[in-house]
Design a protein that fits this description.
By secondary structure, this protein is an alpha+beta fold. The chain has 13 helices and 10 strands. It holds the Pfam family MarR_2.
Length: 318
């Protein structure tokens, strides 16, 4: 069993590159059948477009064949070098170059047109030999990738797998060092640890749990990598606080999982409102809070933290 058979869809891109290499190599043999002029297969889209639609600019060609401006410019340089096209400054815009066929290219054009017709029939016969029409499959694949990129699809699979590996835990005394470590880590990165932080982080049982609050933690691959707390403010109001995710696991959706679990917990406790304090410097955190449904509030309370410059709330419904 070769590598392609063993890994299958996992290396679809490599399989397509191998097929491209095979067809490109055989295409060179096809060009050799029709003319003595050296012609590389990679020139074809540019040359064909210029020959069939004379007077285009480099940017126009790039747009029509779906290649970059730089890639088309390089091919045009090669075609000029082989005296197949010529480049002139446009009369209306001297900054834009107009591409036309040179004498050698003009002589090659009828031969190339006949070659295209022959190759079309040869490829139609080739496709007829296969159970699946590759051309139609490619069109379907291009459409599917335009709807969602391969990277986005891989991320969705990865996130789903990781989500199954993340465990949300209720606070236990043995987790206090992790609770403090994760929060001190992000606070010191941007601000300074304040007295109000240390009270809650050093004595979570006294300052959070015994006052009717709760602490949630996220475990991933045997390590505590995230945490958040609910601090009871009033009978129907809790503060979402002390949310932290280890830098090594950020981007895995752990913060959203913790935030959503905290919201569900608050709702089960009969809360009608969640409140939080943050700083606009923390852009990813602010985006997360908005994603969870929080909105900025102007009904501000005195904050015990110097770093607080934004307060947000989420009104809970049944």
């Amino acid at each position: 069993m070769n590598l392609f058979d063993e890994l299958g869809p996992a290396i679809l891109g490599s399989r397509l590159r191998r097929l491209n290499e095979v067809m490109t190599g055989q295409a060179a043999e096809v060009y050799a059948l029709y003319q003595e002029v050296p012609f590389e297969p990679r020139w074809f889209p540019v040359f064909y477009t210029v020959a069939s639609q004379p007077g285009l600019h480099v940017g126009d060609v790039a747009e029509r064949i779906g290649q970059t401006h730089a890639a088309v410019s390089q091919v045009v340089k090669d075609l000029v070098k082989h005296e197949l096209v010529s480049v002139q400054r446009g009369e209306a815009d001297q900054r834009r170059s107009i591409i036309t066929l040179a004498d050698k290219g003009t002589k090659l054009w009828p031969i190339l047109q006949q070659q295209v017709a022959d190759v079309r029939r040869a490829n139609e016969a080739l496709l007829a030999e296969t159970r699946h029409n590759l051309l139609l499959a490619i069109e379907e694949m291009e459409y599917a990738l335009s709807r969602q990129s391969l990277a986005a699809r891989a991320k969705a699979v990865r996130d789903a797998r990781i989500a199954d590996e993340i465990r949300l835990l209720e606070y236990q005394p043995q987790y206090q060092p992790d609770f403090k470590r994760l929060n001190v880590e992000w606070i010191e990165q941007y601000f300074r640890v304040e007295e109000a932080d240390l009270k809650a982080l050093d004595h979570p049982n006294e300052y959070i749990l015994q006052r009717g609050g709760h602490i949630l933690l996220a475990e991933y691959q045997g390590q505590i990598v995230g945490t958040c707390a609910l601090l009871k403010m009033e009978a129907d109001t809790y503060e979402l606080a002390k949310m932290a995710v280890s830098p090594t696991t950020q981007g895995l959706g752990i913060g959203f999982r913790l935030g959503q679990a905290a919201i569900d917990k608050a709702r089960n406790l009969g809360a009608k409102r969640l409140y939080l304090e943050s700083n606009t410097k923390l852009t990813p955190a602010i985006n997360l809070y908005h994603k969870l449904g929080f909105e900025k509030t102007v009904d501000c309370l005195p904050s015990p933290y110097e770093r607080c410059n934004i307060q947000m709330e989420l009104l809970l419904t049944a």
